[in-house]
Amino acid sequence: MKLLVTGGAGFIGTNFILYWLAHHPEDDVINFDKLTYAGNLENLTSVEKNPHYRFVQGDICDAEHVSEIMKGIDMVVHFAAESHVDRSILEAAPFVMTNVVGTHVLLAASLKAKVRRFHHVSTDEVFGSLKLGSTDTFSERTSYDPRSPYSASKAGSDHLVRAYYHTFGLPITITNCSNNYGPYQFPEKLIPLAITNILEGKKVPVYGDGLNVRDWLYVEDHCRAIEAVLLKGTSGETYCVGGTTEDINNLTVVKKILAMMGKDASLIEFVVDRPGHDRRYAIDWSKIKNELGWQPQHNFDEWLKRTVDWYTVHGEWWHAVKSGSYQAYYKTLYKGAV
Ligand code: NAD
Ligand code: TDX
Fold this sequence. Notes:
binds thymidine-5'-diphospho-beta-D-xylose
């Protein structure tokens, strides 16, 4: 089988390619990635000489290049996106371009190339925000209610993917998953930002009152969920994917990391809240469990610790990532508060 993975040099795409080549060594994987600030080929040096792996630098908005690369592809696994909510608040246009227009370019090319499956990797953020203290969860039946430019652009892409299924018969699947954590995550996201700031002796910025809740999913569990959907999922279907945590708030996550690193709460800096900050996410993943036999296997405390250890050992990786344009972004977002 020949897979086209878009955004394979980013956090989840990298983990997916490493997972897929290890578990399906007979398959060919093309990694099509623009290499934005979030893309890093250093992540994939262990497979760059694998004859079943090929990297192509390109933009999913480039219709000519995408249609060229699509020839002979069996399945598309679409990760490429602008993925950080805070950046979408600073500048929304690249999110509309890559997440909406880029996804449409891929859909049109996939239809023309008659791919067997177009799998779209999406997010629980399209469902909006749940009430703190409630037991409500997001499921495949939840109405869309995106509240940031990021989640609105992902919602737009989800609708286009389903439109190509209903209108043109393109075989598609979608996964809407919760917050991933693990190795190779860009240190703009809460967990790697907290770990690397602590390693640098800096404070950890916590937005607002720190009581916002996320559902945390270890990245390998996410890769296994996509594998299950590609191999056993039904075309036209959506699957919600979530982790093992139950209503754990950001402050608790940061305190856990501090304790794991032998530090105390004095390193926490409460900073101004994110505009439109979604209060609570929680995922009901019973559909993918009942239909495809998937469930998360990685316990949060244990794999958070292993994630802390990974960043501690891979100082060279994140030091390189945190240099250059990252510094300007950090200053603009946190306005010198941390
Ligand atoms: P990331 O920001 O780490 O990586 C994105 C990758 O896409 C980068 O390698 C970047 O170079 C590439 N890219 C960006 N624009 C491109 C373009 N125009 N053409 C080609 N490549 C381009 O993102 P991630 O955290 O790995 O997320 C991957 C996908 O999973 C995204 O679609 C995101 O919406 C979704 N998702 C992420 C999470 C999470 O917690 N990280 C949760 C749910 C869903
Ligand atoms: O410095 C910070 N301080 C802080 O309190 C940062 C960067 C974040 N936060 C809070 C905001 C959120 O409540 O921590 C929580 C997690 O924030 P992020 O890591 O930025 O993730 P989130 O906004 O929840 O979105 C993530 O999960 C869903 C991914 O970035 C998305 O791509 C994915 O779709």
